[in-house]
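Thread: Large ribosomal subunit protein bL36, structure

OP (GT): Posting the sequence first so everyone is looking at the same thing. Length is 40 residues per the record. Can we get the structure tokens written out before standup tomorrow? I want them in the notebook alongside the other entries.
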Amino acid sequence: MKVRNSIRSVKNQPGSQVVRRRGRIYVINKQNPRLKTRQG
């Protein structure tokens, strides 16, 4: 999982979902699991 300070480019990919868990923002992508990202 990558940790980035801006997830805008990741969330624009097809199949991405932005999820808030425990005060952090995650991007999960079932189609392309390489794009799993955390912010914060």
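GT: Both are above now. Quick notes for whoever picks this up: The mean pLDDT is 94. Residues 2-39 form one domain.
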